[in-house]
Amino acid sequence: MWACRRRSMTTVLGIETSCDETAAAVVVDGRDVRSNVVASQVDLHRKFGGVVPEIASRAHIECLDGVIREAMETAGVGSDDIDVVAVTRQPGLVGSLLIGLTTAKTLSWVWGRPLVYVDHVLAHACSPAIGLEPPPWPAVALIVSGGHSSLYEIRGFDAIERLGVTTDDAAGEAFDKVATILNLGYPGGPEIERAARSGNPKAVAFPRTLLGPDSLDFSFSGLKTAVLYHVHGPGRTQGGLERLSEQDIADIAASFQAAVVDVLVRKTMRAVDQRSADAVVLGGGVAANKAVRQALADACAERRLTFHAAPMAYCGDNAAMIAAMGYHQYARGERADLAADAQAN
Ligand code: KG4
Ligand code: ZN
Questions:
Q1: How many CB atoms lie within 10 A of CB 135?
Q2: Choosing a second label site near 272 at 20 to 30 A (CA), which of 45, 78, 307, 322?
């Protein structure tokens, strides 16, 4: 007699508190996202023009329980249905990471379920694979967020090689700082993108820093300084903004964005050439930028490369990518050491 064999499913609760988003998600088998709840703290930090670590930690404490409850309710699961707890352990603000880590350790212990620690940037790197079967590997991954601009070669969820990193300001950080220079508000990325829509990307020839001819590292601080001096005058850091019209500001935003996009595309294509890759994936908060997505999609189409950008819901910080990555780590036997601490880097 034939027994009907049903493949067992693994349901992972993911928790993410590395910066200023409190997030929880329920994901089955690393690709089927049943819920993805994100409580943004943007309103709390706006008046300071950036993330205030102490405020971030307190806000995580206040809302994490509710966010986890909502994620489980939306997914229609109770604690008995959760097979694994996955949590971001690094990198991030230590005080913020600790809230998620302590909560995850507690749930794992109380529910008697295994725990896995996830690296936030690697989770961003694999986020374009969520929902894709089979996953898009091997691929070159461009990950652009507030803290990182990185290139990876991903051959599998457990075979990720870093090819290049941020040497100074990350791409998102440059967007945020240029938005501050132009007085466009916080967070800067979406504001620059909005202003750039009515600007001329060729109005100002801002520098494209490519570093050495083979380098896959990124440097955006020179570009940021070029914007600063363009606004205020050479060597000056204030006094120039008042002289600019709304159109001037839109032109600067568009020209800055074009310079970032240009560097990101050229570096990614360098990595493709060096690794003879035929697929590219894009993730991280800056991947929400339509100019970045489109330019990379066009460059890939021109070279007949496969291209996958992370779905918009998984670009900014979220716990679906943590649960998804956690699933793959769990599946290959990783288990967390409950004594381990959060790590800033
Ligand atoms: O991945 P993420 O949410 O957090 C980190 O891990 O850092 O990325 C946040 C960054 C911020 O710098 C934000 O300004 C940028 O992503 N960002 C954007 C856009 N949306 C968010 N940058 C450019 N264009 C956007 N539409
Ligand atoms: Zn992130």
A1: 20
A2: 322
Q: Enter the pTM of the model.
A: 0.95
Q: Which residues of 237-260 are buried (b: 16+ CB within 10 A; e: fewer)?
A: eeeeeeebeeebbbbbbbbbbbbb
Which residue type is seen at 92? G
- Kindly state if the Cβ of 67 falls inside 6 Å of ligand 1: no
Rg of the chain in Å (alpha carbons): 21
The model's pLDDT over 242-292, given as tens digits with 9 standing for 90+, comes to: 999 999 999 999 999 999 999 999 999 999 999 999 999 999 999 999 999
Assess whether the C-beta atom of 281 lies below 6 angstroms from ligand 1: no
Ligand nearest to the CA of 293: 1
Q: In the chain, where are the structural domains located? A: 11-129+316-331, 139-309
User: Measured in Å, how far apart are the chain's first and last C-alpha atoms?
Assistant: 55
Q: Which CATH number is associated with domain 11-129+316-331? A: 3.30.420.40
Q: What is the pLDDT of residues 194-218, one digit of tens each?
A: 999 999 999 999 999 999 999 999 9
Does pLDDT of 3 surpass 70? no
CATH 3.30.9.10 correct for 139-309 = no
Contact 92, 51 (CB under 8 A): no
